Amino acid sequence: MKLIHRINHRPVVAAVLVAGLLATMSGALVANRSARVDAERWLEKHADVVREGTQQTVSEVIEDLEAVSAFLETARDAGEVGFTEFVSRIDGSVSQVGVAYSVVVPPDEHAGFLEEARETDPDYRITTFDETGEVVPVPPDGETVVYPIKYFAAGSFLELALQAASIPEAPTLLATGIDAGSTSDWLPSLETSVSQDTAVASDFMDISYSGFSVPNVFFVSVPVHDEAGDVIGVVAAPMLDVLLTLAGYTSSEVEWELAPLDSTTGFESEELLWMGTVDLPGVTWQLAVRPSAAKAAALLAVPTRLIVLTGLALTALVTGLVHLALERRAARRRFESLQKLSEDKDRFLAAVSHEIRTPLTTVHGLTHELAERPDDFSVEEAASLLELVVEQADEVAAIVEDLLVAARTDIGRVSIYPADINLGTEVDEVLAGTATEAAIMGNPGPAWADGRRVRQILRNLLTNAGRYGGSRLEVRFAGDAAWSTVTVADDGPAISVSHQERIFDPYTSAHENNKQVGSVGLGLFISRKLARVMGGELEYRHDGEFSCFTLRLPRVEAAELRAVG
Question: Residue 397 falls within a domain, yes or no?
Fold first, then answer.
């Protein structure tokens, strides 16, 4: 039994420390990830508000334009004055920018339309914008449908914008007669509204006039019908994205931008950016939403330093507790080891004293008898007594040899001198020396081993069999090309399965339930050690009738293989 002086706890403590540090960093990462997920949810929620607000604003514009369309269809003689007055009474976005009434004029109706329009406005003409933004006439080609603006009611927002740009013309004069179809960006939605008889919104476009440019303009168009129900024109409202900002959603925490699909957003690459779409009648816009810089910082703010410090403190506490627990456990194990060592020592001393005292007592008594009364014994009696003395002395020598080998195997200094031996010869010598009778079975084979150590093993096996075994004792020889085996078998009680490996531990009896006086308990321990040192093995099994201890040793031919192994 070896005493454990000290257990190295540093690997365990280091593992706990590393685990704590990893848990701390993981906690910080999880907290940051959680903050980002919450921020993305917050942004998506506000993006939904922006989208719904935009859709609601456009829907309200359509409702206002449908009211204007209904007015034109029911008050066909109201003229431009009535049209303008009606638009001014609308409380909505259309009244801030303006509303245009654009009629559909097929090629064969150009002349008739102009004649009718000039009855009330002698200067009326169909115009468009050239490349420089100036208004120029549109000559009738007799092939193209035109959509000239017949009436235009300007809102306060547009009037202020023209004044700020130092444009002297009145908004009405600028818009009246403009061919809405000549604006290529507006034409697709205009044609859709007319052909499908539905309200539609256009994509975004830029409107320029005489150096004055208005970006991000879109039009909402609603069809106007004649008495027969045919579409004869549209009422349309030019809208600005800024109006959507004011009417749809306003917050200091959110910034957003509407643009045509697949266009590049004006926002720079942001850590938090929501990209999506807004579906409107006749068009789909791209929507980009981001939090303001201050709000983004607040959303992603995580007390990382506090998390790390708390994690480090908890790691240090747990590491200290683990170290303390391991030290207490090691101290308990050292105490148990010392206690077991003390018990083994007492048991060992008791067994040794008994085992040595018994043969020594016999030797001491017989030698004194022979020395003090030599004449009282005949030659035959004296020879018999001397034979018994030699036998008991050999028993003491065997016990002492076992003790010496046990001590040397613990420090690895057992001397082995292998040579070619015959197992049958070694068995015969041990049987003769121990006066043991056994049935010999099989043919003994050669072995490469130390004969003295082989005899020591066989003496222990035969002594155990004679002490604990049954009345029948067999020595069986077997082998193959690489190994030779000798088995000592007796028909005594079997060793329990739970005890079969323990019998090879020091100070353990081969038969735990046997009531006979035990030996020192080193025989099987020493025998297996010696067998393994010589490159062999000692094993126990029960074949159903006999308890078998088998010694396996390499043959002479296997010496080189044994040396390599």
Answer: no
Host H or E run for residue 432: helix 423-434
In angstroms, rounded to a whole number, what is the distance separating the alpha carbons of residues 466 and 213?
A: 120
Alpha-carbon distances, residue 194 vs 61, 103, 178 (angstroms): 18, 10, 18
Of 297, 327, 342, the residue at which a domain comes to its end is 297
Asked whether residue 344 carries a pLDDT value surpassing 70, the answer given is no
Range of the domain at 487: 415-564
Domain of residue 511, CATH code: 3.30.565.10
Say which DSSP state 198 is in: S
Asked if residue 267 and residue 123 are part of one domain, the reply reads yes
- The 3-class secondary structure across 79-122, one letter per residue, is HHHHHHHHHHCCCCCHHHHEEEEEECECHHHHHHHHHHHHHHCC
pLDDT of 209 = 64
CATH assignment of the domain containing 242 = 3.30.450.350
Give the pTM.
0.51
For β-strands 419-422 and 446-449, DSSP reports them as antiparallel
Q: What is the mean pLDDT of the chain?
A: 79
Helix, strand or coil for residue 26? helix
Question: Domain for residue 308, yes or no?
Answer: no
pLDDT at 423: 94
